[in-house]
Design a protein that fits this description.
Blueprint (H helix, E strand, L loop, with lengths): L21 E3 L6 H7 L1 H11 L1 E5 L6 H11 L15 E3 L2 E3 L9 E4 L7 E12 L3 E2 L4 E3 H7 L2 H10 L1 E7 L7 H5 L4 H10 L3 E4 L5 E7 L2 E3 L6 E3 L13 H11 L6 E5 L7 H13 L11 E5 L3 E5 L2 E2 L3 E11 L13
Parallel strand pairs: 1-2
Antiparallel strand pairs: 2-15, 3-4, 4-18, 5-16, 6-15, 6-18, 7-17, 8-16, 9-11, 9-14, 10-11, 12-13
Helix pairs in contact: 1-3
InterPro entries: AlphaKG_dependent_hydroxylases (IPR050411), TauD-like_sf (IPR042098), TauD/TfdA-like (IPR003819)
GO molecular function: dioxygenase activity
EC number: 1.14.11.-
Length: 335
């Protein structure tokens, strides 16, 4: 099949302020074959712009979307340490995180709390919501440049700390996060991935893991703000949700929270500043059924806005990258 597109596709990409790069096409059938033909050109577009929304592929079902994901990636990853449940459709193909539709999922880099992270995030919209629900994107290097120097220097020195408390009532269960609830297997995973752990008298698990907050992109060398400091912090929660969780679980038993790497609390003012800078630099485009979005997870943060009506967006994490290969500001050691 011949292509009407240039090898790079770069000249076909629409660039507009406040919107992600968009590439329009009209595929009446066989989106996986089209994707295979344009794989390297599409990856070149993402290398240039950090992400791209492809409109017109006509993706309508799990099989078609999964085949497109396979064509685009070098390897699909199994999710570990999930913070919210997902439905698994196929190996490496998931639903969006099950997060309340009326609450935003703030900007973050997927699995930035892990030692091996997705280099690419792949999204396929099978059903667009009636209103809202866009997957926003923000350039991590720009966000880093706009943060106060004193704040970023502290995070570079100390990193950030993620604390989690697993229970059977809210957030991910042990099986959803670790693939097992067998204590020995969970402990082995934690030791191998530099996660401190403590079992509570009631059987609940609490963990702590210190990670780098700033990294260098392994390809272009740009310094990026790469973490989930704001998204997983208590001050990003809606006030009524935070108050409820603190009342039920206590300030030290929240399902997840973030701190400075030293263990000091991160103030509400810092979280508000982070989210404000993210919002200033957010590009968004409402989903249309059939859309595909490819995101460089290392240089581009993403979010999910509140929505109304059915929303079915498939997700794949692909092309794993070891954070030790991204010029960390301090070494994370495993046991």
């Amino acid at each position: 099949m011949s292509s009407i597109y240039p090898v790079s596709l770069l000249d076909e990409v629409e660039i507009q302020s406040g919107r992600p790069p968009i590439l329009r096409t009209e595929i009446t059938s066989d989106a996986p074959r089209w994707t295979a033909e344009h794989r390297e050109a599409l990856r070149a577009v993402v290398a240039e712009h950090g992400c791209v929304l492809i409109r017109g592929l006509g993706l309508r079902d799990v099989a078609g979307a999964s085949a497109v994901f396979e064509q685009l990636s070098t390897r699909l990853m199994a999710e570990r340490e999930a913070f919210a449940p997902r439905r698994t459709y196929a190996d490496g193909v998931y639903s969006s995180a099950q997060w309340p539709p009326n609450q935003p999922m703030c900007m973050h880099h997927e699995q930035s709390y892990a030692l091996e992270v997705p280099g690419l995030m792949l999204f396929a919209c099978l059903t667009a919501p009636h209103q809202g629900g866009a997957t926003g994107v923000a350039d991590a290097a720009t966000v880093l440049d706009e943060l106060p120097t004193a704040l970023t220097e502290r995070f570079e020195r100390e990193g950030w700390l993620l604390t989690r408390s697993y229970n059977d009532e809210i957030g991910s269960s042990l099986i959803e996060a670790f693939g097992t609830d067998e204590r020995g297997a969970v402990e082995s995973y934690c030791r191998a991935n530099a996660i401190e752990f403590a079992w509570q008298p009631d059987g609940a698990l609490r963990t702590r893991q210190r990670r780098n907050a700033v990294m260098r992109h392994p390809v272009n060398g740009r310094r990026c703000w790469f973490n989930q400091v704001a998204f997983l912090n208590e001050w990003t929660l809606a006030p009524e949700v935070r108050e409820y969780l603190v009342e039920v679980y206590g300030a030290d038993g929240l399902p997840f929270n973030t701190r400075f790497g030293s263990g000091d609390p991160i103030g509400e003012d810092v979280v508000q500043l982070l989210n404000k800078i993210y919002e200033t630099n957010t590009a968004r485009e409402p989903w249309q059924t059939g859309d595909l979005m490819i995101v460089d997870n290392l240089r581009t943060a993403h979010s999910r806005e509140p929505f109304e009506g059915p929303r079915d967006v498939l997700v794949a994490m692909a092309d794993p990258v070891r954070l030790s290969d991204c010029s960390p500001t301090f070494e994370v050691t495993t046991r």
